[in-house]
Amino acid sequence: MDLSIVILNYKQTGMVKQCVKGILASQPQLAYEIIVVDNNSGDNCLTEIKKLFAPAEELPVTTSSLLVKLEAPKPPLLTIQAKENGGFAVGNNLGIKQAKGEYVMVINPDIAVVPGVLEKMVAFMQQNPRVGIIGPKLINPDGSVQYSCRRFPSLLVPLYRRTILGNLPFAKRRLNHYLMVDWQHEKNQAVDWLFGACLLIRKSVLDQVGLFDERFFMYFEDLDFCRRVWEADFLVYYFADVEMVHYHQRLSAEHSGILGVFSKAGRIHLESGIKYFAKYLGVKLPKQR
């Protein structure tokens, strides 16, 4: 099998259905499977997804015309019901462990898949064996580019982003460097790390470096994973040849600045940041080759 697509749901049944419909409508010319994991949402998501894969009813056949409902063959579907909401890493790992594909795509429900993109991403990986993970160019619904790749952060970056220190000229320069504002987002190029909204990962790399670190409930698990891919001497690539619309809502920015710690998502983001920097305390950043 070429590709396993893992979609994690947490109270987003409508978005999951749209994402799956988009994948099916694009009719990828690949041997692929779809794995939907529900993080104990209680929203009947898996039942609704199974309905999309139910056999189509045949229309009556008459002597005047042959009216038979035709549709493309559907790929295998696997649904996984988690007993509790363990977060992004735990939920996606449940799906990855069951994946049979040579490549695994972890994709958020709020990503729109269009025809041809999956084939292009798999082809790029096949042609570049040193690349361990790629992410597409993500765009907003209005067509503007989302900055979905980053440089590795220093310890002060979260402080600058959460306090008034970020308004100081030297801090703004540092933040712009981290956010890669100065970078050309129209070309394929190796980057430090990619957002976990849509990642295509070589299964052999997963076997070597391991799954997402489940110490991170949400946030920083993508940064951590990309760092481990680099440490294993594989490349992390921003793949601008493919665009996907991301209906993104940055929950950790629900309140700006230091007020972010008063939101649940903001606190989770802060906790994950502490865990990340504690994990790599005294460890040198991997060299890009």
Task: Give a verbal description of the structure.
The chain has 289 residues and is α/β, with parallel strands linked by helices. It has a domain at 3-53 and 72-152 and 185-249: Alpha-Beta Complex (Spore Coat Polysaccharide Biosynthesis Protein SpsA, Chain A). Helices cover 33% and strands 20% of the residues. The chain has helices at 13-26, 45-52, 88-97, 117-127, 157-162, 169-179, 203-209, 221-231, 264-279, and strands spanning 3-9, 32-38, 77-81, 103-107, 111-112, 131-139, 149-150, 189-190, 193-194, 198-202, 235-246. Strands 1, 2, 3, 4, 5, 6, 8, 10 and 11 form a nine-stranded mixed sheet that branches. α1 (13-26) runs parallel beside α2. The protein starts with a strand and ends in a 10-residue tail after the last helix.
Descriptive terms for the model:
Glycosyltransferase 2-like domain-containing protein; alpha/beta; Spore Coat Polysaccharide Biosynthesis Protein SpsA, Chain A; 289 residues; Nucleotide-diphossugar_trans; 9-stranded mixed beta sheet; Glyco_trans_2-like; two-stranded antiparallel ribbon
How would the blueprint of this fold be written?
Layout: E1 3-9, H1 13-26, E2 32-38, H2 45-52, E3 77-81, H3 88-97, E4 103-107, E5 111-112, H4 117-127, E6 131-139, E7 149-150, H5 157-162, H6 169-179, E8 189-190, E9 193-194, E10 198-202, H7 203-209, H8 221-231, E11 235-246, H9 264-279
Parallel strand pairs: 1-2, 1-4, 2-3, 6-11
Antiparallel strand pairs: 4-10, 5-11, 6-10, 7-9, 8-11
Helix pairs in contact: 1-2
